[in-house]
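ok trying this again, last paste got cut off
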Amino acid sequence: MIKIPSILFQSFKLIGICLIVLNSFTIYAQKVPKEEKKLLKKARKNLANEKYNEAKLNYADLVKLSPTNDQYNFEAGLSYYFSDFERTKSIPYFEKALENSKEDTIPELQYYLGKAYQLNSDFEKSKQTLTDFTDFIAKNKKPGQLLLKETNKNIALSENGIEYSNEKDNN
């Protein structure tokens, strides 16, 4: 298993949660039933408080209500991705979010999808998705440079995984 320095992992988690809150304004601006808003608020609170099992259940209900909602699918994926187990179950949610989002609506989606592919040993998809994500990184600022460095390291890990898989298949 790939070890990410704790501080970096916490930073990515915090960035992801902040982006959820910012993106929530667009969802609230749309006409959403009151019960759905209440459930979304509960799901986000559980996700932010690292109560991932509860968040998974909340987001499962939200995705049932609106299966093509890219934000619900993305956040459902995050609830699996950040949990201690079943992390690869985030993949279908991330893929559905990507399928239903505009090109740059949720740019960090590709980062998490690439990392989830990596956890699932799908190194080809991981490499491609993470490479696509680098186009969205603001490279002219220090946080963007750090994120680019981390992303390139993950791309290299995926390349190593591809090589290892090929060697394993040849033996």
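PB: full thing came through this time. Confidence is low (pLDDT under 50) at residues 1-5.
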